[in-house]
Amino acid sequence: EAGVAQSPRYKIIEKRQSVAFWCNPISGHATLYWYQQILGQGPKLLIQFQNNGVVDDSQLPKDRFSAERLKGVDSTLKIQPAKLEDSAVYLCASSLGPGTGRYGQYFGPGTRLTVT
Amino acid sequence: ELKVEQNPLFLSMQEGKNYTIYCNYSTTSDRLYWYRQDPGKSLESLFVLLSNGAVKQEGRLMASLDTKARLSTLHITAAVHDLSATYFCAVENSGGGADGLTFGKGTHLIIQP
Question: Whole-angstrom Cα distance, residue A77 to residue A98?
Answer without folding.
Answer: 22
